[in-house]
Structure prediction request, 231 residues.
Amino acid sequence: MSYCVNCGVELEKSARRCPLCGTPVINPVQPPADEPPAYPENIFIPKKTRSRYAAFMVTMVLLIPNLVCAIINLFYPHTGHWAVYVVSSSVLLWIFCVLPVFIKRNAYLLLGVDTAAALLFTFIMSVFHGRDWFLRIALPAILGLAVMLGIMIYWISRKKREWPSVCTAVVGILGLMSMLFEFLISWYVVGRPMIQYSVIIVASCVGLIVFFEFAGRNRRFRAWLTRRFYV
Ligand SMILES: [Zn+2]
Prediction:
């Protein structure tokens, strides 16, 4: 029986290196047998397992401080309902960032769950603030965004789209959303819907769309961009 000279771990007969610290095994009395090594040289972890492991770690990292906050808040109710903000933000973050690892195949299901979570979160926030902006701003804005994203998922899933077209769609959604936001917020705050500042954002979006459309149609320009920026 051999032991590693560096860390003292017990070694297999076939070991040429210590499995723990990697020190080469030189044993003049017992040269390494010609049998296959007991452990693989490189550990291969499938991508799916890795992302699930990461999801598990993120879940734990989120869970522990949330439980602590909730318990402390339960024991000290006179300090307000501050744990509600912490817990509901964390749940929203988990649904947005970790849940896709588990249901990445079904984009519509993911969009539905994300929309419901965003609606629930803004509803809780508006209730705790005692304001009525949920129905007048959050609900129409989130549903508007969900409809646009749903159309985009359908559009992408029908056939493979080049990156300039996808960028055009994303920038288009940004422009439309900025108009919708200004419309809803001015209606709520001033009392009448206005579209004023978002025109600047829309103008920038139109500029970007012209650029992406040009990149989409001009093969040489796109090849140059690919070489230059690895897109
Ligand atoms: Zn060792």
